[in-house]
């Protein structure tokens, strides 16, 4: 059940015409009252002698009890209450009771309090009602509507349980403002996939991802094609900004601008500046020769390998760090997702975009982030942006799969963290993002994993048996499951590549498996393939790896490279 308080209005009759009318798309059927402040209120929907004007005059009568100068400029309060599509159809009596409890919860009317506001609940569809009220009480006083939105939300949660309806997660006031019905209808008319508010929020998020300062942020907004206005104080200090889509115009043909705070709470300029407060000026940043900063290794594949390392370190912080540090890592993970969606190949872009869109809700809570701890992830997002678009094949495509595989761990760890904090909406958003990431992974991994699978099947029987023995010694509790997975041959090829590069396969595999619990992984072999190829510095794309003769070893005489510090055993539920 979703209660939504709409923007207050000035014309009671105008809203009544809409509620009792056919709707903008002829979607209204049988408009009628289900309850009101007065059981004898006229119902223009069911009583042929009643008129909208009569109902309007009765609703607005309390306005005459106070001087015109004291009347609220916008006196029309409007609440819609909508059920989920899978919910049962409620009766008029049930909707009437819902309306009475909603106006009591909001502070509009409460029989126990005596004089209240006049209100009416209109039903013109099976799944929802609208409540209209006049914001002056019968005794001439104005109602106290502070915090009316959270109060009606809390009442909705109670009603869901009592009526056996779909249970929604309780919010905490940190969600981005939803598009209005007018914005949704406009997007439908214009055949937009998303409303301008949602498009702008996504574009601004992408502009923030890895940006190092104000100048770069605004340059990215303009490069993305947005119209940008800034608000400057007399001192010359920048106070805020608004953005608009060039083709989103109002009835007067003017662009419709939104401030950053109207897009999302963390997209106001002061909140964005908090991200920059964690920057380390002594650290070489990527890609800006004009500032004298040293260039980092560039290219999509290099950026993705670096990002994979940063993501893994972030997983450890979310698992074991304090709340402020974990919050910073989760917020910065959203930047990495935005940057990855922006720079990845077409066959993965849609699911990555949906993952970033969903995870955005998980990046905000009332726990304040401790900036600075997110530096590595924000640098990873910056590297992805400056590394440029990745191809869907070769090392670009394979390292994309490697990075997505690791990001799933971070997103799932974020869901677990939010779950422990009872952040229901954020936990659900992270789980939804993980589902999109798994689909994106399948698309990204198909080519490189197929190549590895083919190479694994070409290994000689003695070598394959040796790798089976290595597997059973290193991870005896998971060995049979891995051997039954389609990805086993890809893992065997990776073990052969690691051996040829001078590593001890058993030692490498034991360390990789111990880094994190694997029982809940969807494909253990896939996870181990990418862990091994990253930590052993093997090419992610098997086609660039020298082919190992099926019957001989090509192990190099050099000593195996030391394992990174991040391979310490950190048990935790993975996915």
Concise description?
The protein is of the alpha+beta class. It is built from 20 helices and eight strands.
Give the helix/strand class.
Answer: alpha+beta
Q: Find the count of extended strands (DSSP E, 2+ residues).
A: 8
Radius of gyration over C-alpha positions, nearest whole angstrom: 29 Å
Which stretches are low in confidence, meaning pLDDT under 50 for 5 or more residues running?
A: 283-294, 550-575
Task: Sketch the topology as an H/E string, one letter per element.
Answer: EHEHEHEEHHHHEEEHHHHHHHHHHHHH
How does this model look, in words?
- This protein is of the alpha+beta class.
- The protein has 3 domains: 2-163; 193-277, no CATH class; 300-567, no CATH class.
- It is 48% helix and 8% strand.
- The protein has helices spanning 12-20, 52-60, 92-106, 148-163, 181-189, 196-208, 214-223, 260-263, 269-276, 300-320, 323-343, 346-359, 375-387, 394-420, 424-457, 461-474, 479-484, 488-500, 505-514, 524-535; strands at 2-5, 32-36, 76-82, 117-123, 128-137, 227-232, 238-244, 258-259.
- A 5-stranded antiparallel sheet has the order 1-3-5-4-2, with helices on both faces. A 3-stranded antiparallel sheet has the order 6-7-8.
- α10 (300-320) packs antiparallel against α11, α11 (323-343) runs antiparallel to α14 and α14 (394-420) crosses α20.
- The protein is elongated and about 95 Å long.
- It starts with a strand and ends in a 40-residue tail after the last helix.
């Amino acid at each position: 059940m979703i209660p939504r308080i709409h923007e207050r209005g000035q014309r009671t009759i105008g809203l009544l015409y809409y509620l009792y009318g056919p709707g903008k798309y002829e979607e209204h059927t049988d408009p009628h009252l289900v309850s009101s402040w007065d059981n004898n209120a006229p119902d223009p929907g069911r009583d042929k002698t009643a008129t909208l004007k009569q109902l309007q005059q009765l609703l607005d009568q309390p306005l005459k009890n106070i001087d015109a100068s004291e009347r609220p400029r916008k006196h029309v309060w409007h609440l819609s209450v909508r059920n989920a599509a899978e919910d049962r159809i409620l009766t008029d009596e049930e909707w009437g009771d819902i309306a009475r409890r909603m106006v009591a919860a909001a502070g509009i009317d409460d029989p126990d309090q005596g004089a209240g506001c006049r209100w009416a609940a209109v039903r013109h569809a099976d799944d929802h009602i609208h409540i209209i009220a006049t914001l002056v009480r019968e005794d001439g006083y104005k109602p106290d509507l502070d915090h009316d939105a959270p109060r009606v939300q809390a009442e909705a949660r109670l009603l869901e349980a009592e009526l056996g309806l779909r249970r929604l997660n309780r919010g905490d006031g940190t969600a981005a403002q939803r598009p209005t019905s007018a914005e949704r209808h406009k997007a439908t008319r214009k055949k937009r996939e998303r409303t301008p508010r949602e498009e702008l929020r996504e574009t601004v998020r992408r502009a923030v991802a890895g940006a190092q300062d104000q100048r770069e942020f605004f340059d990215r907004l303009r490069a993305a094609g947005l119209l940008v206005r800034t608000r400057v104080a007399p001192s010359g200090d920048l106070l805020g900004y608004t953005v608009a889509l060039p083709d989103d115009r109002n009835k007067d043909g003017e662009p419709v601008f939104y401030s950053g705070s109207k897009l999302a709470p963390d997209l106001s300029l002061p909140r964005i500046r908090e991200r920059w407060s964690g920057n380390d000026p002594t650290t070489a940043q990527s890609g800006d020769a004009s500032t004298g900063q040293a260039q980092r290794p560039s290219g999509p594949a290099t950026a993705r390998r670096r990002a994979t390392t940063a993501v893994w370190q972030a997983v450890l912080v979310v698992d074991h760090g304090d709340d402020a540090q974990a919050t910073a890592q989760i917020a910065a993970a959203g930047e990495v997702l935005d940057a990855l969606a922006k720079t990845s190949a077409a066959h993965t872009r849609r699911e990555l975009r949906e993952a970033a869109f969903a995870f955005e809700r998980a990046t905000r809570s009332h726990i304040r982030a401790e900036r600075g701890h997110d530096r590595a992830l924000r640098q990873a997002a910056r590297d992805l942006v400056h590394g440029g678009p990745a191809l869907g094949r070769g090392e670009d495509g394979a390292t994309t799969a490697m990075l997505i595989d690791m990001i799933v761990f971070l997103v799932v760890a974020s869901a677990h963290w939010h779950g422990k904090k009872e952040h229901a909406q954020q936990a659900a958003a992270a789980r939804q993002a993980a589902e999109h990431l798994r689909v994106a992974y399948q698309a990204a991994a198909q080519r490189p994993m197929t190549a590895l699978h083919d190479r694994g099947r070409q290994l000689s029987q003695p070598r394959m048996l040796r790798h089976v023995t290595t597997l059973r010694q290193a991870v005896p509790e998971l060995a049979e499951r891995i051997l039954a997975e389609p990805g086993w041959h890809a893992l065997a090829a990776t073990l052969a590549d690691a051996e040829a590069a001078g590593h001890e396969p058993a030692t490498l595999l034991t360390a990789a498996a111990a880094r994190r619990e694997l029982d809940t992984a969807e494909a253990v072999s896939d996870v181990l393939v990418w862990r091994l190829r990253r930590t052993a510095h093997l090419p992610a794309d098997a086609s660039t790896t020298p082919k190992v003769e099926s019957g001989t070893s090509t192990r190099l005489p050099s000593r195996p490279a030391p394992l990174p510090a991040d391979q310490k055993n950190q048990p935790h539920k993975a996915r």
